[in-house]
## 1
Amino acid sequence: MNLLHSFEAAARHQSYSKAATQLCISQAAVSQQMRKLEENLATQLFLRKGKTMLLTQQGKTLLLATQQAFQIIEKNINEITKEEISGSLTISSTQAFTTLWLMPRLSQFSALHPNINIKVMSSAHFENLKEQHIDLAIRFGPQVTENTDSTLTCQYFGEDPVYPVCSAQLAKEMSFTTPDDLLKTWLVSLDKPGRYDWPTWFEHTNTQGYQEHQQWTEVHSTDMALNAVLNGHGFTLAARYLCIAQLNSGQLVMPVNIPHPNVVQRYFVYDEKSAKIARLNVFIRWLKQEMDKETVTG
């Protein structure tokens, strides 16, 4: 069973190194296990092509059988151990989402479902949910699907525009009517902005001279950026859902109402065969309702 478990991971990833990372063992150990399995079966299962381990026809047959067998075992174990709605859930998402969106609203969920205990983790990485004992990951961006294990459910639940925002006080003190006007003040950027960066927004708005702008502040996460601009430190680019409360209260404004050309896609990642699926569905349903409500009223 141990050899078959390692084989399934190596065959699914087509890589001994990725399988080793998932299994928390060395690449050499995976390689040794696959040689032993091939010796036991007296057949070749893999063909190396560069850094990729391709399956032979016999390997493909064994992969299908192994995955079906593991699915049957897992399904029946989950049926036996299926939990009630009451209990715990471990949720993982980005620091910005947990700090700015989830934590301010968690009391509302707890008031509705006092029998569900939530543990919140913050991470910008694509964690291995099973290894980290995470029940639900809330992930964002265009690469979520390709970075999600094929054994997990990756459920799209909408998208949000990204806007340049500043404090209402700064907007009163200075006049911001065109994209060029933003170059009169500080621009706060993430140290790793990815697709939601200032140069792309300036190019999208045909703004000239932004390359020579000198007033830049770099931070590690969007919650830090928004905290800076809330206190009058220029503009930052932020997904609308992250600052909807501050926009509705008037603390933040969008004087130049032009969105970034790239929107933020949202996904739930979880194991639909989890013993906690009833509890998961309660939380997912509540979160979607809250976001849909803000989309309508915001």
Note: The chain has eleven helices and twelve strands.
## 2
Amino acid sequence: MLETAVGGAAFQRMFGTILTDNGPEFSDWRSIERSCLPGAGARCRVYYCDVRQSQQKGGCERNHVELRKLLPRGRGISFDDLVPADMAAAMSQLNSEPRPSMAFMAPARALVAAYGEDGRALMDALGMEEVPYDDLLLDMEAINRAGRERGDKPLI
């Protein structure tokens, strides 16, 4: 879906190298690397971290920590219960928070600064938007508010 949304060349620029763990969801590396576009070959390269070496992909781990602030373990919420709009709301919030490691730039803004219209196309494909700083909700209420706007019940 992302490759189709942004095009093959932009996908390769943004995701040419994918560093991941050895989870079963990443076991079919050939399919991940293969382009879905007609006549195209490989779209990226997949590399795996060493077992139990999460620091090898520290930026990803930071996102996991931040996501768990919105969706804490042990609260009866399964990721399987979330609809794409819930995840878009969560990622809009998380990627709009300025980060010290990025010179206090929000990841969403950095994406657009680095990739221009291709970055905007990626955000659009994911249903993400940059949230103004004063409107950030970095807890479960961000997802519940988005759900209420759609007419859904709160997660918990």
Note: The chain is about 45% helix and 5% strand.
